[in-house]
Design brief:
The protein contains 6 helices and 7 strands; from the N terminus they run ααααββαβαββββ. It has 286 residues and is α+β, with helices and mostly antiparallel strands. It has 2 domains: 1-145; 196-286, Alpha-Beta Plaits (2-Layer Sandwich), CATH 3.30.70. The chain has a 5-stranded mixed beta sheet with strand order 4-5-3-7-6. A two-stranded antiparallel ribbon has the order 1-2. A hairpin with a 2-residue loop joins strand 6 and strand 7 (275-279). The radius of gyration is 59 Å and the shape is rod-shaped.
């Protein structure tokens, strides 16, 4: 007899237990061998009945085995469908996440560009405000350094006054011919004119390239220390341009810059009776 035929008759019946993967477990094979039963020939009624019972048991086993196989096929199909749907959902989620990340990156780039433009505008506005504050500070400093004049003479008025004050009377004529004074008299008149003080006149002083208010005050104090200068009034100090109104009894020119501690390299652009224009090193304005 084979090993299956020697197994006890009370071996486990076919069941429908499932495995860990969710598939139905295969039933245990019934004891006995169908080949041996068919090969032996007997007329014993009990033996034939026993063989019939084993045949029915095997038939039930195969029917149960077929149902389990069909159930496993159905369950495998369901698992395959679920896996496909899960894969599609994962792909859709990845695509949605990629779109959201792209939109977030674009939003960040737009915000960065917007804030960069805003900060640049604020920086420019701060620069303009700082320049205005520097001008106001310089004006306050000059106001504290010296009182402002009640009236401001224009350049035309200053030139007219200067021309009138320096004009000499024409010599008298004798008998229709111009009178020529003797040389000694002319020399005495010239010496007397040189010794006599000139009448005060207003001179507008422009200084380009003044870096700080300290340099502007230094130049103002330097002009106050000149002998021919009686008054120095600050009119404007904006973006490096210093405008002064000076009351002087003599000419102002390049020689008057000597001795100014902050005037190294200063260049005289114009020196007129009513205007003195100076440029400090480093300025491009002329």
């Amino acid at each position: 007899m084979s090993e299956n035929e020697r197994a006890p008759e009370n071996r486990a019946r076919p069941g429908t237990a499932t495995t860990a993967s969710g598939l139905a477990a295969l039933p245990a094979r019934p004891a006995g061998s169908l080949t041996n039963d068919l090969a032996s020939d007997t007329d014993d009624l009990a033996t034939l009945r026993q063989r019939l019972d084993r045949a029915r048991e095997r038939l039930a086993f195969y029917e149960s085995f077929d149902r389990i196989i069909q159930e496993n096929i159905r369950r495998s199909s369901e698992l395959m469908i679920e896996a496909t749907e899960l894969h599609e959902r994962a792909e859709r989620a990845i695509a949605v996440q990629a779109e959201a990340q792209a939109a977030l990156d674009q939003q960040r780039a737009d915000d960065r560009a917007h804030y960069a433009t805003l900060l640049s505008d604020l920086q420019n506005e701060l620069g303009r405000t700082r320049a205005a504050l520097d001008g106001i500070t310089a004006r306050v400093t000059f106001a504290l350094a010296g009182p402002a004049a009640d009236t401001v003479a224009t350049p035309d008025e200053s030139a007219t006054a200067s021309a009138e004050s320096t004009a000499a009377p024409a010599p008298a004529s004798i008998g229709g011919a111009p009178a020529v004074p003797p040389a000694s008299i002319t020399a005495d008149v010239g010496a007397a004119s040189a010794l006599a003080p000139q009448s005060p006149r207003t001179v507008e002083v422009l200084v380009h390239g003044v870096p700080t208010a300290r340099v502007a005050i230094s130049f103002q104090n330097h002009l106050r220390g000149l002998d021919q200068v009686s008054e120095v009034e600050a009119r404007e100090f904006v973006e490096g341009l210093l405008r002064l109104q000076v009351t002087a009894s003599g000419d102002l020119g390049t020689n008057e810059l000597a001795g100014w501690s902050d005037g190294d390299g200063a260049e005289t652009l114009r020196a007129l009776p009513d205007l003195l224009e100076i440029s400090l090193p480093g300025t491009t304005e002329r």
